[in-house]
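cron nightly-structures :: item 1 of 1
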Amino acid sequence: MNKRLQAGQGRVPSPCTDVCRIDPASGLCEGCLRTIDEIVAWGSLDDGAKREVWKRLPGRRQALSDARDTT
C-alpha cells in the first residue's frame, strides 16, 4: 500500500489494473485481486472502506502465490 493510503490522505485510488478477469477458483479479479462484490461497490464505498479493501490485497496476493507454488 502506498504512503498516501497509509496516511489516510487524499482520494483513495482504485486498485484496478485493467486486467479484468475473475478467477473461478479464488473468486478474485486476476488484475486487482478484489472480489466482484468489492469491484461493484467501489464507487459507493467511503475512503475508510476503500482503504480496508487495499489492506486485504497483499494477503490475497501472497495466498495466491503460495497456492501456485504448491501446484
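cron nightly-structures :: done
DSSP finds three helices and no strands in the chain.
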